[in-house]
Amino acid sequence: MLGLIRTLLKGDGFIRGVIFLVGGASGAQIIFFLASPIITRIYSPEEFGVLSFFVAIFAVCGVVSSLRYELAIPIASSDVDAVNLLVLSFICLLGITALMVAITILLSIQGLRVEGYSQMYSYLWFLPIGVFFIGLHQILVNWGLRRKAFGRIAGTRIKQSVSTVASQIGFHKFGVTALVAGYIGGLAVASFALGGAILKSKDLQYYRWNRVLNVARRHKRFAYIDIWAALFNTAGVQMPPILFALLFSPAVAGVYALAHRVLALPAALIGEAVGKVFFANAADARRKGDISFLVLNLNKSLAYLAMPPALIIITAGPYLFDFIFGAGWGVSGKYAQWMMPWLYLVFLASPLSSLFLINERQKDGLVFQSILLVCRLVSLLVGAGYEDASLAIFLFSVSSAICWIGFVKWVSYSIGVSFVKLVSPILTSLFWSVLAILPLGVVCNFPVSLGMFLVGFFLTIIFVSVYYYFFLKWAFFQLRAGVK
């Protein structure tokens, strides 16, 4: 296996990019996971809720920070166009950042406050800074994808997570300031690491103002159509921490945020990494007629990879959260149980969302994201109407899962394969994963002694290890057979 990995790393192609980006993403994930039990013990749910509120605002504003022109950089027809798209994206970012500064100043002058939420208002000045760095990071990552600098992108992931965690733990006496500033600082470190290569190169000499205007017109679909689909998608994902903080309390937002942070991290890091490499290679695969083959193999790999941990969370979520993150966070595990089916589907399907762009079906993407946003908003408002946060999360998760199943159906249609072919790996991995975690399921649902619980837990670890052994054996067999 090690020899095969070395061979793959020396070559080009899809798998090499995935190995680099997933490696960096996995390293960043491990750092965040190891730090989370410390962070949850030095910060309260209320403080964590304020962080989640601002991170959600950053994410929503970050979608429009460069008007989505940064996504055209990897697929530009020439390097000259890519350079001018880079400049265009940065100009848009400066404009949006200036707008956020004006809004922040206006709110400060007017002294607008929401009663009971002065704590969140006190940190409003973080808003333009966070939007700038999240937008800058997105631009530079897409430029790195254009250059297929997967190793550099992976390295910045590690730097970002280390700097974020170090700041949040080292300066915890400053409370929410350390949490939010640490998050922004991580983005800044990653951006500077990626931007240095551009400044050292001679690529920027190819930009001209008339060319910048030309690429703006040529790729206007990103700014006019795709931006709304992305905004609806991000707003739908980030809606809960914002509305929980406003409709319930920052503490509820913090409890939800921990569950979402732990569960969505693999999708946000590993799934995002795979999605970026898929985006960088799918256009060529489509031209060669190999897009269905690429999608089916990617879908099968992700389905088998994510199923065992998903079932473990569904089975023992409250126990694991209470043990790992400390007393008082068990309710996050309860939320995690309900959220897991939806986030499992996101892990599988979100890397394929770039098919909307590759097939030039941005309108389909807008329709999908609009339906998803409406379903999520209705779910949260129903829960708020009953003053029941648990009901809101349950309805939010169910409606999101149904919408993503619909997206998988669209993918099957767009690549010309049957829906059953995309779903069958999910069902097969579900069968084998249920057998693997059966001992844990027994000890979690029946009153047993601590000794019996440990026996069931370690048996599950052994069975899951066997499961992954055969999964990796299949994956490497595919590689040896010539999957690129």
Structural description of this entry:
This protein has 484 residues and is mostly helical. Helix content is 84%, strand content 0%. The protein is built from 19 helices and no strands. Helix 2 packs parallel to helix 7 (150-170). The mean pLDDT is 82.
> Which residue ranges are poorly predicted, with pLDDT under 50 across at least 5 consecutive positions?
none
Question: In percent terms, what proportion of residues is strand?
Answer: under 5%
Terminal CA distance: 16 Å
Tell me, briefly, the overall form. globular
Q: Helix content range of the residues, please?
A: over 70%
Summarize the structure.
The protein has 484 residues and is mainly α. It is 84% helix and 0% strand. It has helices spanning 2-10, 14-42, 45-63, 79-110, 118-121, 126-146, 150-170, 176-200, 209-218, 220-248, 250-288, 291-325, 330-349, 355-358, 362-385, 389-415, 419-436, 438-445, 450-480.
